[in-house]
Amino acid sequence: MKLFLKDVVQSYGGLRALDGLDLAVEDTSCLALIGPSGGGKSTTLRLLSGLEAPTSGSIVINGQEIGDDTDRRRRFRKQVGIVFQAYNLFPHLTALANVALPLEKVHGYSTTDAILKSESLFERFQLEDHMMKKPAELSGGQNQRVAIARAIAPDPDIVFLDEPTSALDPEMTAEVLDAIYGLIEGEKRIVIATHQMGFAQRAADTVALIAEGKLVETGPSKQVIETPNTPRAQKFLEACLDR
Amino acid sequence: MKLFLKDVVQSYGGLRALDGLDLAVEDTSCLALIGPSGGGKSTTLRLLSGLEAPTSGSIVINGQEIGDDTDRRRRFRKQVGIVFQAYNLFPHLTALANVALPLEKVHGYSTTDAILKSESLFERFQLEDHMMKKPAELSGGQNQRVAIARAIAPDPDIVFLDEPTSALDPEMTAEVLDAIYGLIEGEKRIVIATHQMGFAQRAADTVALIAEGKLVETGPSKQVIETPNTPRAQKFLEACLDR
Amino acid sequence: CSNKKPSNLLIVGMELSYPPFEMTDEQNQPTGISVDMAQALSRELGKDLRIENIPFAGLIPSLRTGKIDLIISSMTQTEERAQSIDFSDPYLDTGLCILLPKASDAKSIEDIDTPGTTVAVKQGTTSHIYANQHLGKVELLLFEDEAAAALEVAQGKVDAFIYDQISIYLNWKKHTETTIALLRPFNQESWAIGVRKGNTALLEEVNSFLKEFDSSGGFDALGDKYLAEEKRIFKELGYPFFF
Amino acid sequence: MSFNSLFLEPRKGNTAKNKSVRKAVSFLVAILTLSIVLFASFATLSYQWNWEAAFRYRLKFLDGWFTTLKISSVSFIFAFVIGSLSTLCSKSRFLPLKYLSLLYVELIRGTPLLVQIFLFYYVIADAANVQNRYVVGVAIMAIFSGAYISEILRAGIESVGRSQLLSAKSIGFTEYQTFRYVIAPQALRSSLPALAGQTANLIKDSSLLSIIAISEFTLNAQEVNAITYSSFESFFPLAIGYLIITLPIMRLSRYIEERLRYDT
Amino acid sequence: MSFNSLFLEPRKGNTAKNKSVRKAVSFLVAILTLSIVLFASFATLSYQWNWEAAFRYRLKFLDGWFTTLKISSVSFIFAFVIGSLSTLCSKSRFLPLKYLSLLYVELIRGTPLLVQIFLFYYVIADAANVQNRYVVGVAIMAIFSGAYISEILRAGIESVGRSQLLSAKSIGFTEYQTFRYVIAPQALRSSLPALAGQTANLIKDSSLLSIIAISEFTLNAQEVNAITYSSFESFFPLAIGYLIITLPIMRLSRYIEERLRYDT
Ligand SMILES: Nc1ncnc2c1ncn2[C@@H]1O[C@H](COP(=O)(O)OP(=O)(O)OP(=O)(O)O)[C@@H](O)[C@H]1O
Ligand SMILES: Nc1ncnc2c1ncn2[C@@H]1O[C@H](COP(=O)(O)OP(=O)(O)OP(=O)(O)O)[C@@H](O)[C@H]1O
Ligand SMILES: [Mg+2]
Ligand SMILES: [Mg+2]
């Protein structure tokens, strides 16, 4: 996957969540966005996945401009899967329906196939017993797993994951890591925002550190995490418990 | 702090989130609850903090029964601080008001004092620029930091933290660790549910592993995390990325 | 209930929307023939007068529950009404007339009483009662608002509107281009003052007042004051006039 | 049985067996209280009841009742369609449409139905050469109620959080699908109480159609009242007749509301 | 200027300068459309206008208008109090109180105001020896509207998520504080559109008080109509008179709604 962001600005009211972000990645299977809280990771993911249009600047993925044009963004979104930091499941639907509904309505599965496919994912993430619960009745990690299942169920070309393991225990984190490897093997491409450096290093081949709405450093994951070049990156990674 | 849970059951509809939990901790400054997602950590915290009454069983903290009696639970809750896994900030109030309002209304601060105290906490957690935003306008980590500030602002005797660093970067996680040390020094007591074993080991002196609504293993944190005794605990901790 | 108010007060109920008998002037004060009558009566009885403006349907209940002492509201004496209240001696003779669309060739009430004809009446009035008893073949439409009934005739939506003489005349004047009026009454009826059953003392006082008022030319004076034009026109056309 | 066990609702989770007994007893107490007030009041009135006269006109009541039922149910369907369309227009980016919908909602909600009926029947319908008063009556009630429903639905739609819309976008839903599967079910759930209230209002407001001589329930009751001079004897059947229609609607709405409840 | 730039709402973030021009032009287009329909209809009617007669009775209109304003504003205050109390009772654990509130809401919402006015004025107020018809009128309107407001507030309260209540508990709020600082602001925000609608209804429904001889706006207009034989000439001022009261309320409600908007 080729990513190219040039002078991207995203303003919310007076605040510039992204303040001239430049990022060029030539070829990556899995890119990890790391950086301090409030730095702009989630905002970057929303722009890359075409959910929002940037206030200014250009975003090109695999040669395709994900710009101002609403229709192009909508077509692009059908090929991607997204896990939100706050999960954003539909509160009025059961966990199962949350996953099966898009399969049926957007990707043309028959109802039976949609449910079968969803069920196999629920099994994989050990959610068999919780399929019929509404999101408000699920634990934090269960919600997160449903969100991951919803995102990867339609076999999207690119998956955007916003802190997908923040509520998961080590066992389940390993399971998600496995799922990511599986996706990469299947020629899918992945962008993750994460605070877990160990997870970032294992999952991603490339890392980009974003702080205060700007790119601080980018490069191969091992290099950036273990031997960062810039002082800002060094300071950030010093505190890591799990490096 | 002395904790004593005997045969605690908590049912939601047909499901037993806690299925006869027994836990006795003689003396701890900081107890960490770990375990697989959906195991019952958040439920245990809700019971310990007096937010819910258990379906059956008895819960004693420092010799005080936190039982069926609504009034006793309410009195108890005034002395504790709670950080929810989903933050649960009030969406109609600014970040500042979320922290200052309980200080003013519950703990008798003057409006000025409440705001001053809140502001100093916002500074500590690097939120100075975000005090006037509503929760929906904050990043995941910013929300989490506001929730932590809200919980510790009134200097409660016991603080219950449900995965308080899940959305925080390493730098901020270290800051929260510092805050916890500060609380312990000030004779406060803490219970944390967490998936980050490194964090658990550094913050807590005692660890309890809860799975499928039952206690699996408990003991000093270093011992349980590094050399667990039971097979279930060994299996769970094997997968840790950051041990 | 009737002894709850000072005994030197005479409360008369009327619906102030029946010009020129009961209406209000530009200053929103009650005026009209019945109002003058009531004033003369109260002078005669040596009581203060209060006029209550009550919709026609509310008059009899008000009298029966003692909220008013008398009804002077162009009320026709009927057998049914006489079962609920007592009537004084009649003070005015009139009859029902017909308003027709311009194109109509009906000449009398008999021409109208044919199948398929729609006839408008004002609900609850003697026109309503007459139609119920004598017009068996027509389709009856009930109106609360006489202006609406007149409009229906003007727009050709109904075939006839039956109401008392003066109203038909005045409505015809409003729609001279679209309607014609048959102003010779086809039945005889008379108006009387309503008194609560059992209140025979007042009934006798009212009757003696009416006798004296008539013999002293009071009614003729009222006719000249309020109905000068109508009196003249009716005389020209050879129709009987009220007083 | 103690006072508590009879009159206090058991706490959540407490599966007291006499739950339905409690409910029944308490309900009876409530009804009794109300009845006593009414009876005491009537007792002081020394009113001469005359039920026979009212009973003679039972067919008239029935006729009116059915007319009201028919008119209001047909009106409701159209009102819902009009209301939905207006809500849609109010969300349109084509400004004249948006403002037309705004004007519609505000003018209709802001002015008396009486005036609207008059204007619509004697002016607009007359110009359009629609003569059937029942057709016009249904049209007016639909237009009138539609404005209220439009506002109710708008509020319902706006109560759906932005994160839900983002989520719908993220799974590739089209705007229609987002509406159908995300907005509509949540908006409907939150609009249900207001919708039920509006339906009850529609049924009762249809009584104003008597001004254009539609012989609906209220008009017929008032007619009986006018003929027999027995106000209360015609107003009690009136109240009960309306309750027979409105009560099931309100109960149904509460039931569905309960069924569709979910937490956010 | 192109069609698009005139009539299409600019996308979010687009800070087009001619925003207010667009709004004004589109609003005019909407108003014009409406006016044309009305004028065309009246043109076919060949109605003999008689504005002078109506104008002579301007004091009567004004009197009635003020009466309506006074009665409905006082009623609204009481209705809000009654509605809030009833909502509170409906959440009570003391079952007879709960069912009394339920009965109140359902009986009042389910039966016509006309019947209630009749019953209340001629029976209950009479028994209680309250003779002032304005006092009784205000009481009836407050009781009637209170039932609707109660249901609106109930729905608003129930729209506040369970997690909010847990959160309020966790910071040690008493039940009153939870209500005051958490439930009330959120419930009020979500009830606002329905409350505004109900207020408009209260103002318009107060016209039924004419049955107990309160000379309010509608009655006075109808009297002018009857006296001067000029229906439309009295109904237009009527519509405008009500709009003068209801429009600001609806606009204000939308404004506050916009101001209090927050995402969940
Ligand atoms: N309101 C509810 N209704 C039904 N089931 C519930 C409800 N709340 C919790 N549960 C279930 O109870 C079990 C324990 O949930 P709990 O939130 O305590 O887990 P947890 O250990 O905190 O998990 P996580 O690490 O994922 O947050 C889960 O299986 C969950 O689905
Ligand atoms: N809707 C909004 N309105 C105002 N400010 C916003 C809004 N959304 C985001 N922001 C601000 O933009 C900045 C970047 O937010 P973003 O969510 O991208 O951070 P992040 O890197 O994902 O942080 P975290 O690790 O805490 O999730 C933050 O300061 C945040 O407060
Ligand atoms: Mg984020
Ligand atoms: Mg949890």
How do the helices and strands line up, and which of them pair or pack?
The complex is a heteropentamer, with two copies of chain A (243 residues), one copy of chain C (243 residues) and two copies of chain D (264 residues).
Chain A lengths: L2 E10 L2 E11 L4 E5 L6 H8 L7 E6 L2 E2 L4 H9 L1 E4 L11 H11 L5 H14 L15 H13 L5 E5 L7 H16 L3 E5 L3 H7 L2 E6 L2 E7 H6 L4 H8 L5
Parallel strand pairs in A: 3-8, 3-9, 6-7, 7-8
Antiparallel strand pairs in A: 1-2, 1-4, 4-5, 9-10
Helix pairs in contact in A: 3-4, 3-5
Chain C lengths: L8 E6 L8 E2 L5 E2 L1 H13 L2 E6 L2 H9 L5 E2 L7 H6 L1 E2 L4 E3 L1 E6 L7 H4 L5 E5 L3 H9 L4 E5 L2 H9 L5 E5 H10 L4 E4 L6 E3 L2 E2 L4 H16 L2 H9 L1 H10 L6
Parallel strand pairs in C: 1-4, 1-5, 9-10, 9-11
Antiparallel strand pairs in C: 2-3, 5-14, 6-14, 7-13, 8-11, 8-12
Helix pairs in contact in C: 1-8
Chain D lengths: L2 H5 L11 H27 L5 H6 L1 H33 L4 H16 L2 H15 L5 H26 L3 H9 L4 H31 L11 H12 L2 H29 L5
Helix pairs in contact in D: 4-5, 4-7, 4-10, 5-7, 6-7, 7-9, 8-9, 9-11, 10-11
The structure holds adenosine-5'-triphosphate (2 copies) and magnesium ion (2 copies).
Features:
heteropentamer; A: 243 residues; alpha/beta; 6-stranded mixed beta sheet; 4-stranded antiparallel beta sheet; globular; D: 264 residues; mainly alpha; MetI-like fold; binds adenosine-5'-triphosphate; binds magnesium ion
How would you sum up this structure, described in words?
Chain A has 243 residues and is of the alpha/beta class. Helix content of chain A is 38%, strand content 25%. Chain A has helices at residues 41-48, 70-78, 95-105, 111-124, 140-152, 170-185, 197-203, 221-226, 231-238; strands at 3-12, 15-25, 30-34, 56-61, 64-65, 80-83, 158-162, 189-193, 206-211, 214-220. Chain C is 39% helix and 22% strand. Chain C is globular, with a radius of gyration of 18 Å. Chain C has helices at residues 33-45, 56-64, 79-84, 109-112, 126-134, 146-154, 165-174, 200-215, 218-226, 228-237, and strands at residues 9-14, 23-24, 30-31, 48-53, 70-71, 86-87, 92-94, 96-101, 118-122, 139-143, 160-164, 179-182, 189-191, 194-195. In chain C, a hairpin with a 5-residue loop joins strand 2 (23-24) and strand 3 (30-31). Chain C is α/β, with parallel strands linked by helices. Chain D contains eleven helices and no strands. Chain D has helices spanning 3-7, 19-45, 51-56, 58-90, 95-110, 113-127, 133-158, 162-170, 175-205, 217-228, 231-259. Chain D is flat, with a radius of gyration of 23 Å. Bound molecules: adenosine-5'-triphosphate (2 copies) and magnesium ion (MG) (2 copies).
